[in-house]
Design brief:
Chain lengths: 355, 355
């Protein structure tokens, strides 16, 4: 039995999309149970339409809902202890649930998750990991925007966190890992990236196949199962790829509707276009995973529809079932046992950040 | 009359692609003249096939050719004073040519260009600008990899350089400019980016319409005519977009060849697909422009074909004709006259870099 706590008030559409999403998942995964947090007057009517879901769910009324435009500090001030977002996270801390899923605003969800769950013992900062569709399948890319900048220690932490996620989701024993860098001969890369590369190579971990530096175009190729970078460039890479995909989809639509011949061609090839659309569909890889915390929190896109939110839940489900946190903890212990200097070398300020 | 100096030995294919490219341009632009630098035994035979080109070109034999895998320091050691790459750049310095185009390796070309042409008086570091195809047309994105990291002063320099290029190439009086950032509420952005934003807003230049921060997906949308960022994230954005475009082209090819219906549809829509391929074609926007130097240097993709190399030459031609360097110099003077603190605030080490 896997229990998932749901913030039903997040996202652009709230319970009207989230409850149908839960209903989809409940029919596909029979060993799942939900604890749904939200405002009674909007959640109850939706839940009443889904008797099968209601039978495997518990509902908890929360007076407060974090707004999509709340700043993290506002959200913490108004929403701590009592909002649906906070309660859904707190259920993970209390072991009432195994993972939390919210489509609420990223900044607020991260601030509350850090405050409530805290980072793992040897982790300075959490990261947000994205599941990136590639020519070969999918890769884990992190950090895509939890924090800006990362030193070598934080980059090695991200590598271990991402490796755990790839092992849990892809069923690979020893995922390949690359550090994102730029290929400019001698001046190649930032010192932090070079140092992280040295540390990962030396560690030579049984659970991680470190491959060296990769470049921006390697992400789409699927050159490695895990791509590690700091949050500024990771966020820019993710958004740039989304923008490019949307731009090309626009070109394609325009090209297929311009002439009669193209329109006829479109009718014949409609099945192929539908499959293509599915491949390019961001919903299939919906959700950023917060890694490095004492609990699993998945952030769904705010604009996700029921299929998108369902995909985010199923990702959380898979990570719980494949014991993501245990894997990460074991890898961190191993890494720090073999590399005591790695933990010792951490600046004191960064360690204090955890408090 | 516009004179372009050509390094005929650069690129994966050398003179066999570069000479036909020059021939294409020579028929389209009748007021262009070329000075071609390269090894006699490989350039002469190609040139002999193109009598119209030969009539508007001067050829200079150079014993040395910089190799594609030379490190910048190697290239400088072996190729300074005598390689075709160096000679083509030197022609710009000597005012024998108005701009230089090479498909040689980026690191070597940048090292030689800096050494030979030097940076403009108030510029710390040159940038590489890319012409990026967008849903609206094209945008200038810089720096895409000349150097890693940039402080606020360097980012404002890049904004002025990119604005000059957009004015010269797009014929817009007051291009819109955005600073690339990540949209994470309160912790939004690096200090350098915030400070650069303040400086550009205060400067309120007549030639630049500063719009504030943009995110990765704004590049493909064409939200602003110019997108400014430091070289690490700029290079990752560029390569990630190229990777995504290639990935989707692969999906499309696969989808259109999988079923008979799709194949029939493809035949009907072939014209539309050809137009689409043209739109997605990186050759159309081939070439990185080195900005901030006392001369125009355009780097063509090493793998470019004749059309791609021709596009790079025509970009150089347009920038010369529209007096790119004069525009940039005027803008820099204006900016520093109004913002003396900007020049004064520069760290001494950065100024020394120019020597």
């Amino acid at each position: 039995m896997i229990k998932i706590s749901i913030d039903a008030m997040g996202g652009d559409h709230g319970p009207s999309v989230i409850i149908p999403a839960l209903a989809k998942v409940a029919t596909r995964r029979t060993d799942i149970r939900f604890i749904i947090y939200g405002r009674e007057e909007v959640v109850r009517p939706e839940l009443a339409k889904q008797p099968r879901l209601a039978a495997v769910s518990e509902f908890v009324h929360c007076e407060v809902a974090v707004r999509m435009d709340d700043k993290p500090s506002q959200a913490l001030r108004h929403g701590r202890w009592k909002s649906s977002m906070w309660k859904a996270i707190e259920a993970v801390k209390a072991n009432t649930s195994d993972a939390c899923v919210s489509a609420g605003n990223t900044g607020a969800l991260m601030a509350m998750s850090k405050f409530c769950l805290r980072t793992m013992a040897t982790i300075d900062r959490p990261a947000i990991a994205a599941l990136w569709p590639t020519a070969r399948g999918e890769s884990v890319v992190l950090d895509v925007g939890a924090t800006i900048g990362a030193d070598a220690h934080q980059l090695t932490d991200f590598a271990i966190l991402g490796t755990g996620m790839a092992r849990a989701l892809f069923g690979i024993d020893r995922p390949t890992v690359g550090l994102l860098n730029v290929g400019v001969e001698e001046i190649k890369g930032q010192e932090e990236v070079k140092e992280a590369g040295r540390m990962l190579r030396e560690a030579n971990m049984a659970s991680m196949n470190y491959q060296g530096f990769v470049e921006g175009d390697d992400i789409g190729k699927g050159t490695t199962d895990v791509v590690v970078t700091e949050g500024f460039s990771g966020n820019i890479a993710l958004k740039t790829a989304e923008g490019t995909a949307r731009q090309i989809a626009g070109y394609l639509r325009e090209a297929m509707s311009r002439t009669l011949m193209a329109k006829i061609g479109y009718i014949f090839a409609k099945g192929a276009f539908d499959r293509l659309r599915e491949k390019m569909d961001v919903r299939r890889a919906n959700g950023g995973v917060f890694l490095g915390l004492n609990g699993i929190v998945v952030k769904s896109h705010g604009g996700a529809d029921a299929d998108g939110f369902a995909a985010a839940i199923e990702m959380a489900y898979d990570m719980v079932r494949n014991r993501l946190l245990d894997r990460i903890e074991a890898d961190l212990d191993l890494f720090h046992a073999r590399n005591p200097h790695a933990a010792m070398g951490r600046p004191a300020a960064a360690v204090e950040d955890q408090e």
